[in-house]
Each structure stands twice: as structure tokens, then as C-alpha cells.
Amino acid sequence: MKGADGAVLVYLLCVLSLASEVSLADINSTQTAGDVEDGKTPVVHSAVSQIIAREGTCVLIDCNVTGEPFPRVQWFNSHGHLLDTEAS
Q1: Domain range summary for the chain, segments of one domain joined by +
Q2: What would the 3-class secondary structure string for the chain be?
Q3: Which among 18, 32, 33, 77 is most buried, taking Cβ atoms within 10 Å?
Q4: How many other β-carbons are positioned within 10 Å of the β-carbon of residue 14?
Q5: Distance from C-alpha of 52 to C-alpha of 85, rounded to nearest angstrom
Q6: Burial 73-83 (b: 16+ CB within 10 A, else e)
Q7: How far apart are the first and last CA of the chain?
Q8: Where is the signal peptide (predicted)?
């Protein structure tokens, strides 16, 4: 969604997982924080609000999470595409 000044509004979804592969059913399920088999349920300690940036620019998103084993964090844009968070 582009604004008149060329700014782009980006909605991001953060997905946390303990396993190396996650199904859509796993993403849509919820768990209460606490103990799970062989570890601790992932917990997000920061909230993400709307981020507005010009297309092609970099943004820094702070995502503080805990869990055992440490959760893998994946970011998806508003179109459902997985974002490359390893690019520098």
C-alpha cells in the first residue's frame, strides 16, 4: 500500500517455532505460556506496530523472544511471503 509521498505501509507477521518445520495448523494454534515437553513455550516480550518505510530501504525490527530450545523467528509480509532476514 503506497502513500502519496511514496512511503510503503508494511504489515509483518512474526512466526515462532521450536521445530525446524512448521505447518499452517501449527501457526494457527495457540498455547499458554509455561512448560512444554522438553522445554519452555516461546514467549514474545515485545510488540510490533505498523512500520512505514520507503520501498527498497532497510528497517530494523526488534523482536525479543524466549523459549527452550530457543525459538526460530520468521517474518512474513502482508502478502504472506517469507522475508529474507539474513540479508545484510
Answers
A1: 7-76
A2: CECCCCEEEECCEEEEECCCCCCHHHHHCCCCCCEECCEEEEEECCCCCCEEEECCCCCCCCCCEEEECCCEEEEECCCCCECCCCCC
A3: 18
A4: 16
A5: 18
A6: eebeeeeeeee
A7: 24
A8: 1-25
